[in-house]
Amino acid sequence: MPALKFWHYPGSCSLAPHILLRELNLDVEVIQPTDLSAAAFGTINPKLRIPVLSIDGEIVTEVPAILTAIAQLAPAGHSLLGKTPLETARAYEWMNWLSGYLHGSCYGGLWRPERFTDDSGALQGIKEKAQVNIKNAYGFVEERLGAGGLYAVGDGFTVVDLYLLVFYRWGKQIGLEMEREFPKYTDAMKNLVKRESVVKTLEETKLAPVFEAKI
Ligand SMILES: N[C@@H](CCC(=O)N[C@@H](CS)C(=O)NCC(=O)O)C(=O)O
Q1: Is 99 in the pocket of ligand 1 (CB under 6 A)?
Q2: In angstroms, what is the span from residue 12 Cα to ligand 1's centroid?
Q3: Which CDD domains would you find in this protein's record (predicted)?
């Protein structure tokens, strides 16, 4: 097995690859950087973002690439990227959209509107439009969940389901009524959080369970 190092931040998009590392029981050095400035982090990732994975010293960035790199460390015959070539294409279709559109464009607009304009008067409008785009994007997820509705790709678990968990948590964080408004997405995530790897990673990163037990 290669030597692995993983830079993450609890609750961020790094959660998906973090769970995958635990799913595969990989031996990895996990690092939570406190400073993402160019001076502190620039040599690790010049884009100054987490997550970052180092495989025998080779740095890999971007969630879809990192999920792919980790999945390739799974025993032969795994279906973490889909069971057929078409399912693999679907997995990349999902990951590209989640990373580029939902994360970069929608959540970027909401949480980092200054990336889209130098006009301080335009910031509020960008945030408001981003809120609408996020909600519509979740509607799209709800419609596009695969056969049976429990998985994103086909009828089995793939890395895309882990990536969807990141955005499900964020949806709750920004106050969307995820359970009421997106019942299929919710069922898929309720199914996913039963995995030991999810439970372990949430504990490890000191994040609350996604669905609190009803008393
Ligand atoms: N496209 C990148 C996005 C990475 C990204 O934006 N990560 C966030 C955490 S979710 C981050 O590092 N934020 C720090 C910042 O914006 O300063 C990916 O898919 O990995």
Answers
A1: yes
A2: 8
A3: GST_C_Beta, GST_N_Beta
